[in-house]
Design goal:
With 223 residues, the chain is an alpha/beta fold. The chain contains 5 helices and 8 strands; from the N terminus they run ββααβαββαββαβ.
């Protein structure tokens, strides 16, 4: 009786993997691995592109806000509300129509009286003369109500470098508060009498000063 041909695909009851099958298995594994790497690279590239786009958009938006091309609702209104500096153009008024109160906020004795005499020599009407306490630092603070803005403009032209502040008074009087950097009025022949606007401090200083008005009169001796 003839023996059956030996099945080379089996060995001791186990199936023997052939060379072609083995190569096919490795090819399938390598293909799957490469496909996974490709997907990861694509995802990584998309994430980087999105992040780069967000960074560029953020920079462009910030520059637009700084340059005023983008304005947030209410930002202009809040800035306008915090500012008390009038934009009106005033004519130089006759000093005889302007009443000033002169206060000394420095340790220098007699400074207010000396400045008041100078204002009188220029035909200004002088009211109170005395000492004062203030948190303001500069040459001088010129203070008036809305009714005294034109008069304050004339006074300020005689005090270059001074800053204007508005308070709630109803009359047209103007307070002159002399502070640490004050060195005297401008020479009469050098006073600019052309029309112009009031000079106010920077907005950041105005906001800080609004919490405590620059005019805090004391009951000290005459300055």
């Amino acid at each position: 009786m003839a023996r059956k041909p030996k099945d080379v695909t089996e060995l001791h009851g186990h199936r023997v993997i052939t060379g072609p099958e083995l190569r096919a298995t490795f090819v399938d594994d390598e293909t799957a691995d490469n496909s996974g790497k490709l997907r990861r690279k694509i995802l990584h590239g998309v994430v980087l592109f999105v992040l780069l786009g967000l960074i560029v958009a953020g920079i462009m938006g910030a520059l637009a806000v700084i340059n005023g091309q983008i304005k947030f609702p209410g930002s202009e209104d809040s800035q306008a509300d915090s500012s008390a500096c009038p934009a009106t153009t005033f004519d130089y008024a006759s000093p005889a129509k302007v009443k000033v109160n002169v206060f000394n906020a420095t340790p220098r004795a007699g400074l207010a009286r000396s400045a008041a005499n100078e204002f009188k020599a220029r035909k200004f009407e002088v009211g109170q003369v005395g000492n004062i306490e203030t948190g303001y630092r500069g040459v001088a603070a010129i203070v008036s109500g809305a009714a005294g803005q034109a008069a304050a403009f004339t006074v300020q032209r005689n005090l270059p470098g001074s800053d204007y502040f508005q308070d709630g008074r109803q009359d047209a009087t103007v307070d002159v508060i002399l502070t640490g950097d004050y060195r005297g009025l401008a020479k009469p022949e050098l006073v600019d009498q052309t029309p112009g606007t009031l000079s106010c401090p920077r907005e950041s200083r105005r906001v800080a000063d609004e919490e405590q008005l620059p005019v805090v009169p004391s009951q000290g001796a005459k300055g």
